[in-house]
Design a protein that fits this description.
Elements lengths: L4 H34 L19 E2 L2 E5 L1 E10 L5 E11 L4 E2 L3 E5 L2 E5 L1 E5 L9 E11 L3 E7 L2 E7 L1
Parallel strand pairs: 7-10
Antiparallel strand pairs: 1-2, 2-8, 3-4, 4-9, 5-8, 6-7, 10-11
Length: 160
């Protein structure tokens, strides 16, 4: 059986066009899926709400919980008035989890630092433990004994 080469040539461009159309549709589907996944990452917490106050409860589409603290080194700057800094190391979580900025509150001679992490609740993530390290300015303090709480880690320092 002999095949006409003009017929083969005529069929080939149609096949190429079909492959291009299928490829374009697949790329468009991936782009739409990525846009849906990455849009609205605040999960309803854009107004500053934590949806559970750091209890690990989900807020909308986000799970928010305290990071795991490994160590806290409170340093006293030689200045007037004295200033405190906390060098914090710990663990954030998996490849989808990010740490929020620390929240600092004061009550008497106690400084409380809350460091929360957030991640999409149903995200499929790499199981890589991500480290956290940050030097946090705690502000000026009066001489005396100060307690610094960072999540579940507590340290006391004497400022002279």
């Amino acid at each position: 059986m002999q095949v006409d080469t003009t017929q083969q040539a005529a069929r080939q461009p149609g096949r190429r066009v079909l492959i291009l159309i299928v490829s374009a549709v697949a790329i468009a589907a991936i782009a739409v899926a990525a846009a849906v996944l990455w849009s609205g990452n605040d999960g309803g917490v854009a107004g500053g709400g934590t949806g559970g106050g750091g209890t690990g409860e989900p807020s909308g589409n986000l799970e928010i919980k305290p990071i795991q603290i490994e160590s806290v080194d409170v340093r006293i700057a030689e200045s007037y008035p004295p200033q405190l800094f906390a060098e914090v190391t710990g663990w954030v979580g998996d490849g989808c989890t990010v740490a929020r900025e620390p929240e600092i509150t004061r009550e008497g001679n106690t400084i409380t630092v809350t460091i929360l992490s957030e991640r999409e609740r149903d995200a499929i993530c790499t199981q890589i433990l991500l480290g956290y390290q940050k030097n946090i300015a705690l502000g000026s303090v009066e001489p005396g004994e100060w307690t610094v709480k960072v999540n579940d880690h507590v340290q006391t320092v004497n400022v002279r």
